[in-house]
Amino acid sequence: MTTPRALVIVPTYNERENLPVLVEALMQHAGVHVLVVDDQSPDGTGALADELARRHTGRIQVMHRTGVRGLGRSYIDGIAQGIHEPVDVICQMDADLSHDPRHLPALIAASASADVVIGSRYVPGGAIQNWPRRRRLLSHLANIYIRLITRLNARDCTSGYRCWRREALAAMPLDRFISDGYSFLVEMLFVASGQGARIAEVPITFVERRLGESKLSRAVLLESALTPWRLVARGRASEDRP
Ligand SMILES: Nc1nc2c(ncn2[C@@H]2O[C@H](COP(=O)(O)OP(=O)(O)O)[C@@H](O)[C@H]2O)c(=O)[nH]1
Ligand SMILES: [Mg+2]
Q1: CA gyration radius for the chain?
Q2: Judging by beta carbons within 10 Å of its beta carbon (0-12, 13-18, 19+), is residue 21 exposed, middle or buried?
Q3: Greatest pairwise CA separation for the chain in angstroms
């Protein structure tokens, strides 16, 4: 079997220390292409990404977003471009080295029998390194909460390390999404599951970033707490419609 062609979408906001390390590691994998979606990072990550694209001609693209910043918005724009690329799978990955590229082949391989594969911290073999107890607890409770409300089966609904079959991603009505922050990731799974997508999980070891800062804010947390309810309500409303 030939290696599947993969496009890895990497959203960035102030990741100048991390992005070059990540990109060089990804370039070691045959068949892997990268699309960096930068939100006008004040630290110059965008210009750095352009430099990396010049170094690896034809394998790296850079999207410089303008307008309102946001993780969900960045993914929507990146995916809109990515689904037209001649690739088999499209992956999502953080730039801060929390998502180790060495797990990528396992995610891609599992997409042979799934529409979306989650790089999961919460299946046997999965792990988290360097997270304080508080952050571990928050993530653990968030997943219980999301699973209870949305009835999603996945153990790790908030992981941002994923691999999609291109057609499954192309089938998503992203223009109708209601969330933008980290809950965008939950909404993607919820909608995919509603469309009958096969969801699989492979274990990863998540390593908290060493350099740069997390963008997890209170506003983002609040949105994340409300989104599951809004998703379920919207699901019911569309069932009621004749
Ligand atoms: N383009 C873009 N990327 C973002 C934004 N917020 C976060 N990111 C990126 O999303 C990924 C995850 O963010 P991070 O701050 O590490 O979140 P955490 O891992 O949950 O603490 C990283 O690659 C960030 O650079 C944003 O508003 N726009
Ligand atoms: Mg992070």
Answers
A1: 17
A2: middle
A3: 55
Digit-coded pLDDT (tens) for 89-119: 999 999 999 999 999 999 999 999 999 999 9
Q: State the CB neighbour count (10 A cutoff) for residue 148.
A: 10
Question: For 147-176, what is each residue's pLDDT tens digit?
Answer: 999 999 999 999 999 999 999 999 999 999
Residue located nearest, by CA, to atom 20 of ligand 1: 216
Look-up of token digits 């750095």: 48
Terminal-to-terminal C-alpha distance of the chain: 46
How many angstroms does the Cα of residue 237 sit away from the middle of ligand 1?
32
151 closest CA partner among 120, 183, 117, 194: 194
Q: Which atom of ligand 1 is nearest to the CA of 45?
A: 25
How far apart CA 79 and CA 118 sit, in angstroms, is: 17
Strands (E), 93-173: 116-120, 127-129, 162-165
Which residue's CA is minimally distant from atom 6 of ligand 1?
Answer: 71
Pocket of ligand 1 (CB under 6 A): 11-13, 15, 37-39, 69-71, 74, 94-96, 98, 209, 214-216
Number of the ligand closest to the Cα of 216: 1
* Number of the ligand closest to the Cα of 18: 1
Query: Would the pTM of this model clear 0.85, i.e. be above it?
Result: yes
